[in-house]
Amino acid sequence: MPTKYRSAAEALDGLLEDGLTIAVGGFGLTGNPNDLIEAVRDSGVRDLTIVSNNMGVDGAGLGILLDNRQVRRVVASYVGENKLFAQQYLDGTVEVEFTPQGTLAERMRAGGAGIPAFYTKSGVGTPIAEGKPHAEFDGVTYVQERGIVADLSLVHAYVADPAGNLIYRYASRNFNPLVATCGKVTIAEAEQVSDEYLDPERITTPGIYVQRLIQATAREKQIEKRTVRVREEASA
């Protein structure tokens, strides 16, 4: 059973220190554990390694940790929406390990499953594979990738129950479930914390992966890029 805390700062108390590796859920700005990210920012810890699909945008999501110069290294698959991130990378103040999106997902899943490494075809023959072990299987060359085990995992869920079982909503389900499994300690913030236990058929992340739980602050959901078109008039 996870311990429920009144705030993100309380949930993170005693866990944060300089140099941690933190895995963070989210897909773009969808499903970011914003309360927990803000509490990490407010703590002032430095030299962090962040493992996440992306680093948000300037001034939002994980971008606020870049604003505060708290990040030393990033393991991600996509960083194109954050100008500050690009500048810090070019300046040499932030180290970046690019990982194909599917490989990143599998690295986190493997870490959570106790699998230290695996082989994949993705990245073979590119700079991503440089310096990594290679092996041939059935006449095809593969590159070895290491599983990821983070010191701390931060996730955002739609609903949690008293046992820490989690349900996600829409694109929030893309990376949050994987992040939840790969942390030595996992903290979940949930939009709804139910007093009743969830239907087992609906659960995505079993509560055994979750050690700490908070109720997420209600806030307007952010959109990276709003694309709209003129509504066509219905034909007569």
Describe the structure.
Helices cover 21% and strands 25% of the residues. It is α/β, with parallel strands linked by helices and 236 residues long. The protein is built from six helices and twelve strands. The protein is globular. The strands form two sheets. Strands 1, 2, 3, 4, 5, 9, 10, 11 and 12 form a nine-stranded mixed sheet that branches. It has a three-stranded antiparallel sheet with strand order 6-8-7. The longest helix is centred in the middle third of the chain and has 13 residues, at 101-113.
Features:
globular; transferase activity; 236 residues; 21% helix; 3-stranded antiparallel β-sheet; 12 strands; 6 helices; alpha/beta; 9-stranded mixed β-sheet
